[in-house]
Design goal:
alpha+beta; 10-stranded mixed sheet; elongated
């Protein structure tokens, strides 16, 4: 790329930030808003603090969305105020469009908030306007910063507010400048240099993604193609080179703002669908691992299978929710395509004969169709897995029933074996004791007969007498054991057979 001639400058540069913040979610009621719905207005206040712009610092005092708390001496976000403060003329259109700056009691007219700051060290005085809106379920911000002077290209970065403002759905930077000392053949190179001066980190990606002509003046589009809205950088450089451009822009203002809002919503819906796809794919991979574990040894225990039976339905529910959300995002894309088409037709009706709006039509005809096609492919790929979740749940239930039945049978068999062993022991021991009792009745003095004891020994009352008595007991027990053992063996053998 050619180096920028030192003579190139910009006259009356005006940078407009069109930012869009999701106010409501379809999962919430009409009166409920997103947790971070007021983020856009809080960031504007932060920008005022950073740039020392008094009007932005006190922005909450001007917005219908805030009410003053005398006790705390501060303003609180109350979105319900927006509808309550709407005038009779505004109420029929509340679902479509509402200006958020409080009405001037004297004129009952909506007003843009204009502001300016003191001159900087280069003698440049920052000026601008802020125009906050509610469009359907979204907050829209039109924040314009400008210089009245002719400035160097490098000074354009001082206009860029995106270091403080990052909207949830997305945003577009529209730079409107009058080239100074630039030949028409060098307009594209000049636009590249404007972007380099505006956003330093885009210096390596300066080629425009599209170019065209709008209301007689050339316009160049830049996009870093990031998927996440907060990382996406969409820039339009519009060169003021036709006397009718400004007047046509005023007529087409609302259509242009709506069109850019639809564009951001389409990108946002697609990015959300990709997130849902990635989460569903992760659940799909987990399910595949479970399937492999079911068909591969070692076999799972009954406790593990019961745990799986708890987890699989939960994962199936989340999986179905991600697929449903993807359907919702596809519907959102379709709806915003219709709105985008309508606004584009309005712009075409105001366009000049030599205008080239292909850069706006390409997004509609190529990018949007690609998004819709990709979501359909993702759904076609993921939907069959829902049946696999159901089949796996049924399979696990069947395995649990089989294992439970086997466990019950094993427990019953073990109980029977324990009972049989106990009966065998009782029978054997009972037999032995019975034989010992009979033996003790038949031969009460068996040891004395086997080992004769003299009468003198008995009369001597020696301790050995007790020993003979104990030997009698042992003898009869041994007789019982000897006779009971064959009985036990016979019973054991018969039960085993």
């Amino acid at each position: 790329m050619n180096q920028t001639p030192t003579a190139w400058k910009v006259q009356n540069p005006s940078l407009t930030l069109c930012a869009f913040q999701l106010r409501q979610d379809i999962t919430k009621g009409k009166q409920e808003v997103m947790d971070n719905a007021n983020q856009l207005w809080e960031q504007c206040v932060a920008l005022g603090e950073h740039r020392n712009i008094q009007l932005l610092k006190s922005l909450k005092t001007e917005l219908r969305s805030y009410t003053y708390d005398p006790k705390g001496s501060q303003y609180h976000y109350h979105p319900s105020n927006e509808d309550q403060e709407a005038t009779a003329e505004e109420k029929p259109y509340l679902d479509d469009w509402l200006e958020l700056v409080r009405k001037d009691p004297q004129s009952d007219q909506a007003r843009q908030l204009r502001f300016h700051s003191d001159s900087d060290k280069n003698g440049l005085r920052l000026m601008g306007e802020i125009y906050p809106l509610r469009i359907h379920d979204t907050y829209a911000l039109d924040l314009t910063l400008r210089y009245r002077e002719t400035v160097e290209l490098a000074q354009l970065s001082q206009l860029n507010p995106t270091d403080q403002i990052q909207a949830s759905i997305g945003q577009t930077l529209l730079l409107f400048v009058k080239p100074v000392n630039v030949e028409e053949s060098a307009y594209e190179d000049f636009a590249n240099q404007c972007v380099a001066g505006l956003v330093k980190e885009t210096a390596d990606h300066l080629q425009p993604s599209a170019r065209g002509q709008l209301f007689g003046s050339p316009i160049f589009e830049y996009d870093n193609d990031k998927q996440k809205p907060r990382e996406r950088c969409h820039i339009l450089v519009w060169l003021d080179s036709h006397p009718e451009t400004l007047s046509k822009t005023v007529d087409a203002y609302h259509s242009l703002l709506n069109l850019l809002g639809c564009r951001s919503k389409i990108h946002y819906a697609y990015s959300q669908s990709r997130y849902c796809h990635d989460q569903a794919l992760e659940l799909y991979r987990e399910l595949e691992q479970k399937v492999e574990q079911l068909v591969q040894p070692p076999e799972e225990t009954l406790e593990e299978l019961n745990q799986w039976l708890k987890e699989i339905p939960q994962r199936a529910f989340h999986y179905a929710k991600y697929l449903r959300d993807m359907e919702d995002h596809r519907t959102a894309i379709t709806t915003n395509i219709e709105n985008y088409t309508s606004k584009l037709e309005n712009i075409k009706a105001l366009s000049l004969p030599n205008d080239d709006l292909a850069f706006l039509e390409t997004f509609l005809d190529r990018t949007c169709k690609q998004f819709q096609s990709q979501i359909q492919v993702d759904l076609n790929y993921l939907r069959p897995t829902q049946h696999l979740f159901e089949q796996m749940t049924a399979t696990i239930r069947g395995m649990i029933e089989v294992k439970q039945a086997e466990s019950d049978r094993n427990n019953e068999a073990a109980a029977q074996k324990r009972e049989q062993k106990l009966e065998l022991v009782i029978t054997t021991v009972g037999t032995g004791l019975a034989v010992s009792g009979i033996s003790s009745q038949v031969a009460s003095d068996a040891i004395e007969k086997i080992l004769p004891v003299s009468k003198e020994a008995k009369d001597a009352n020696l301790p050995s007498y007790l020993g003979y008595s104990s030997l009698d007991i042992v003898f009869h027990l041994l007789v019982g054991v000897i006779l009971a053992t064959p009985v036990g063996i016979i019973l054991w053998w018969s039960r085993r057979k």
